[in-house]
Amino acid sequence: MKGIIYILLLCTALLIAVSCSELLPPAPDPETVLAGPIEDLTPQQLRDHLIGDEQFGRIFGQKDGLGPIFVSNACESCHIGDGKGHPLTTLIRFGKYSGGIWDPMVEKGGPQLQNRSIAGYPPETIPGDATGVTRLMPPAVTGMGYLAAVPDAVILGLADPNDSDGDGISGVPNYIQPLDYFVPLPSHIPSNGRYIGRFGKKAGAIDLLQQIVTAYKEDMGITSDFDLQDNFNIQAGLTTGDFVDDPEVSAAIVNNVVFYVRTLKVPPRRNENDIDVIAGENLFNQINCSGCHIPSLVTGFSDVTVLSNKVIYPYTDLLLHDMGSVLDDGYTEGTALTSEWRTAPLWGIGLAEDSQGGSPFYLHDGRVSTLEAAIGFHGGEASNSRDAFNNLSPGEKVQLIKFLKSL
Amino acid sequence: MLKIYITLVYFILLVTPIIGQQDTSVVQDAIYNRPFITSAFPVALGGYLEGNTNYFSEDGVSEGFSMEFRRFNIFLYSTIIPRVRFFAELEFEHGTEEIAIETAQVEFEFLQALVFRAGIIIVPIGAYNVNHDPPKYEFVERPLEATKIIPTTLSDIGFGFNGKIFWNNLLFTYDAYLVNGLNDGIILNDQGRTFLGSGKAEERFAEDNNGSPTFSGRLAVKSQKFGELGISYYRGIYNSFRIEGETVDAKRSIGIMAIDFNTKIEKLIIQGEFAVNSIEVPKNISEIFGTKQWGGYLDIVYPVIKGNILGFDNSVINLAVRLERIDYNVGEFTETGKNIYDDINGLSFAISFRPASGTVLKANYIHYWSRDALGNPTVKTAGFQFGIATYF
Questions:
Q1: What CATH topology corresponds to B2-391?
Q2: Cβ contact, residue pair B383, A24, below 8 Å
Q3: Which of A48, B245, B259, B361 is within CB 3.0–4.6 Å of B353 for a Cys-Cys bond?
């Protein structure tokens, strides 16, 4: 009996020792994962990144200050794995033109609809007199630190408001009125007190701090040191309803999240040496998709050294372009026209479906599930490229799509 | 509710004459089926402790090796006078991180079929919630169903009746109590999903948050040949729908139904539980906070060696396997019509050494496959645990 027991115990121990590595799940291929810090962060920066990561994943409950009206309950609920969002957490914004002037309908809860609410509290609805209503899919947040580090001068250098080169593309920056906590950097170039927006589908946010403070408040109903005023359902005549002390998160927490987003790695490329991918990239340039989706940008100085003076490949010019009437939702921000959209960065687009439940949702509102269909909706300044894509042979279209999927 | 009680009491009185003295080793007796109760002193003192090691990895990311002192529980039992007994259980979790009175109850045994119980009681929803002591199990982790779907350990302030009725070699047991019930935290909590465990507000031991008691009951039948089969039900209003007597919100209910069983086939010990939750949630948040949940587990234990092992008389080495699955949110997304996932599947293996029936050394391997609500790529978590649990 003793012998059997000793053998059994020995076998068990050996089995466990040998099989530990086999039985523990391996890390997925880094090329298939959006999330992760930039390489070469200092240990201190890496620690701060991880602290921010924890806050990015924090789920807010009613007792933490969620709401009283909100869209989602965590940063990560909209940006799962730091990737693109899902129709579940689509942001809806509205407004109207009044006497030729854009009215974000603040007195009716605009510009963002909070369509969810804490128990016993009414959610907002879209006012009947709103003339513009848009649905905005949450973007991937990877690589945003690099986009933030692109100097205004680079963006302005890409602008061509009068289409002086005659290619049918006339990108313009969106000038945004800064909020009171905005601190300009030396690389910012103001115009009449406004600054170039670069984040958001309409480039409505100047920097990541604005983007994140706004997301805390407008998306989750979480106040911060930067913005102490909660959202209430003024449509229902309510000016209270959240009984958690403000601020619900401190400036330190917001800054941690800003640092986290700034120090996320750029989306990884896959299969870039594949023959079809290379051919697709050539077609992408040939039909001038790259006229707006500029392949590379160069960052300027950044206080985070690894972000400084780097060549990045986001496939955007961070400018607004007229995309035609089909994509015109009648909604706008800043100086953008309702038909104008900021060139969407294409990096990471090949991994979009991994954060969208296996089925991708493309374009600003997620209306299509294939890249071919997304290209088909391009109009306005992108009409020539769209037509050129439609004239490609089926094989060439496949190559171009393969290239996009490799981003 | 009152009708249910009257019917139950009437039924019990009707069948009382057929009560006899037979084997009463059933789930209902779990709180007394512990070694300390045999003490000769007027107040018996006992308890259990549980600790373990953890080494887990989630998609290749590991926090490394750590040790965890899970629980140190103290039991107090006293027969005040014949047929009037007191029982209490004080729980220390993770050292002194969480200290709670899990049970503090008095029972008046009018008849074996009619026992009045009052105090802080273990809510009879599922068998695992009632019978959850770690020395009784080969696995360190409790089943997902018994923690995420039914929030074991769920105790509450309340009162009610229980009893045993023998009939044709079958032992029927019942439990029926009114308790304060779970609270608002079931939804809009920091778990980001409907989670009954977040509804266990400490305030429930002081007052009901809505003035509407919750019913919890369990009926079971045990056969010496086939084992025990139980069905339990829990229903009540969970939200604070009135303040200062004024109605400020709609009433929203929580319902749990569970089926549990345990049996023995030759040397094979099989037990399992299946639970379904139904929760009323405001429509505008019902995609995030699901209105239906379910979960189940199956434990199969096989004693491979019994006898004198390493000098311990009557010791046993068991092999065990656990299969489990939970779904936090049964439903579809309104916008896409696609399934809401938010589920976990689990497979665990154990080898345990029991030098005595109330003492166990456990070696476990656990593997979980989790999907978020959208059904994004499955997150794989696996790891090893070595644990010890013993009554004292």
A1: Porin (2.40.160)
A2: yes
A3: B361
